[in-house]
Predict the 3D structure of the following.
Amino acid sequence: MIWLKRGLIAILALAAIGLALFLALGPAIADDRFNPVTPHDPYPVSDAAQALHDTLTIGDLHSDSLLWNRDLLARNDRGHMDLPRLIEGNVAVQVFTAVTKSPRGMNYERNATDAADNITLLAMGQLWPVRTWNSLFQRALYQAEKLHDFEAASGGGLRIVREADDLDAVLAARAQGDDVVGAILGIEGAHPLEGDLANLDRLEDAGYRVIGLQHFFDNALGGSLHGVGDAGLTEFGRAVVGQVAARGLILDVAHSSPQVVRDVLDMTDMPFILSHGGIAGQCESRRNLSDDLMARIADAGGVLGVGYWADVTCDDSPAGVAAAIVAATEVMGVDRVALGSDYDGTVRVGFDASELAALTQALMDAGLSDDDMAAVMGGNMLRVIRDRLAER
């Protein structure tokens, strides 16, 4: 029996070592694996492009950096962005989006609502509070808490934007030469509402201002672009859209089914965003809505944030992203196009936040005027955000 006890002790010890290694190394390995930057030589940026870039007010409609256990106030050697890299890239306003549910494999084609969720394992592996392990709502609250903690520790370098006055204060500080980045909280898919409209109050109190309707799964609000069929808005979904409109929040239809987008267009006249995506006519992809539907979004005052990864641009280089931006301006108009990187969203990109001047160079090479670049790189995003927050 002694050998049996010793064997059991050895097995338990190995299991403990394995668990310790998983907790110590697993999240960082996953971060490295899922958020790579395509290897490249330094991108050439002319003096003229850099000078223009330095004058731009740059905004990004989508990043998932709060999902990962990184100190976003320090420069990291993994992932796509953090505060030092945002400052180096001259980013003025960044939307930080909370992911609460996503499928293993990140399947664009079809995901059943009961498919395995990989955020649960990530939350456990990163030692998030136990309350987040089985509650999508708590996952959203926790990611908001993380951003508030970063703001408190930033010495004023990161400021959460809740109202239009906050946005104006960030831009005024930057105009005076301060290195400050405005941060806006968003949810990627309204899964954390958990079917209860009262949870919208709690998310709003936590600082959330951008409300995405769907992510990779159909939910209580309606169909996902990657769900089962092309379901439209449910009655609950219509109630949420109505509340977003009434409260001066920003509606995001990224990942929503085409029918959900059509339903939103039919029921509201508020400008909304598709925070990260591309143009199907330029890059045919399940991830991109049809050009006709994108044109309807533009006609309603909506704005597309062009992503930086190949699934939506067909080329993740600065020139490839610039080509997608040009295509979007041709379909939607130059005043309806913005940036939506999807940084740290389990995608491969061609440049991180510190290298955004390379995108300015690529847009210059593509023939965009200075005014058009100013609109695309931040002006259009800030117009929609300010207009919506001014309704609060």
